[in-house]
Design brief:
This is GIY-YIG nuclease family protein. It comes from Aggregatimonas sangjinii. Belongs to the UPF0213 family. By secondary structure, the protein is an alpha+beta fold. The chain has 2 domains: 70 residues, 3-Layer(aba) Sandwich (GIY-YIG endonuclease); 41 residues, no CATH class. The protein has 5 helices and 3 strands; from the N terminus they run E-E-H-E-H-H-H-H. Strand 1 and strand 2 form a beta hairpin. The N and C termini lie far apart (62 Å).
Amino acid sequence: MKFYFVYILFCSDGTYYTGMTNDLERRLAQHQSGHRKDSYTYFRRPVLLKWYLQCTSPSEAIAIEKQIKGWSHQKKMALIEENWKDLVEFSKNYSEHRHPKDRDRSSTGSD
């Protein structure tokens, strides 16, 4: 059975890169070596694999990759850290819900 992987890399500039491949080891080596000068990670090396998911179909992997690419930095962090509470929180309308730490600070301000 062939497997496909969705993965998240942490880049040296503090950003995340989300990708999909059928050979995770080879793809990580390509990212680290700067295989393509026009790629997102080329000038953001070194990169560090922070999360991956193994899928059994390419269509499933592509759908998950696209979904994650649309997520905020905070939501990706919640997934990587397996912080399910924040992941659910960040799944709500982002403009209506801030990080719980930010809400705590604003609710304790003086009148």
